[in-house]
């Protein structure tokens, strides 16, 4: 049995931190690995791996990670050295910066989008494009 309602990535992602569906957390999360949120978080996430926000999850805070997949509701700034994906059930209120941005039909995005060719482990930005909705 999968822990995903729908598979967010083709790869199996091992999570170092999982916040369960019936859990509430007020505070920041830092991880050198991947994080999955299925409950309610009021705080920031800083992860070296992927961050997945489940369909029933809510997050009020900023997220910094390699990849961010959102199925639930997020209110905050998103910064990914890789890709940010918004799936059909997602609601994101906040600005994003990423190498690439994917949005499913039905997803809600309210904020500014900055797509930048960011070298990992570097603060150099090679090109930028800014769009807004």
Q: Which descriptors apply to this entry?
A:
133 residues, 7-stranded mixed β-sheet, 6-stranded parallel β-sheet, 0% helix
Summarize the structure.
The chain has 133 residues and is mostly beta strands. The chain has strands spanning 17-19, 24-26, 29-31, 35-37, 40-42, 45-47, 50-53, 58-60, 63-65, 67-70, 73-75, 78-80, 83-86, 91-93, 96-98, 100-103, 108-110, 112-118, 125-132. The chain is globular.
Give a topology summary.
Blueprint: E1 17-19, E2 24-26, E3 29-31, E4 35-37, E5 40-42, E6 45-47, E7 50-53, E8 58-60, E9 63-65, E10 67-70, E11 73-75, E12 78-80, E13 83-86, E14 91-93, E15 96-98, E16 100-103, E17 108-110, E18 112-118, E19 125-132
Parallel strand pairs: 1-4, 2-5, 3-6, 4-7, 5-8, 6-9, 7-10, 8-11, 9-12, 10-13, 11-14, 12-15, 13-16, 14-17, 15-18
Antiparallel strand pairs: 18-19
Describe the 3D structure:
The chain has 133 residues and is mainly β. It has one domain. 0% of the residues lie in helices and 53% in strands. The chain is built from no helices and 19 strands. It has strands spanning 17-19, 24-26, 29-31, 35-37, 40-42, 45-47, 50-53, 58-60, 63-65, 67-70, 73-75, 78-80, 83-86, 91-93, 96-98, 100-103, 108-110, 112-118, 125-132. A 7-stranded mixed β-sheet has the order 3-6-9-12-15-18-19, with no helix packed on it. The protein is globular, with a radius of gyration of 14 Å. The N and C termini lie far apart (38 Å).
């Amino acid at each position: 049995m999968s822990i995903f309602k729908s598979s967010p990535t083709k790869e199996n992602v091992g999570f170092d931190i999982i916040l369960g569906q019936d859990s509430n957390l007020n505070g920041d999360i830092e991880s050198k690995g991947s994080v999955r949120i299925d409950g309610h978080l009021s705080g920031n996430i800083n992860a070296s791996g992927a961050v997945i926000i489940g369909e029933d999850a809510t997050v009020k805070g900023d997220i910094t990670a390699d990849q961010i997949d959102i199925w639930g509701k997020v209110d905050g700034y998103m910064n990914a050295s890789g890709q940010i994906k918004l799936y059909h059930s997602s609601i994101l209120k906040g600005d994003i910066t990423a190498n690439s941005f994917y949005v499913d039909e039905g997803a809600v995005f309210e904020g500014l989008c900055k797509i930048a060719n960011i070298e990992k482990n570097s603060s150099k930005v090679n090109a930028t494009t800014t769009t807004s909705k």
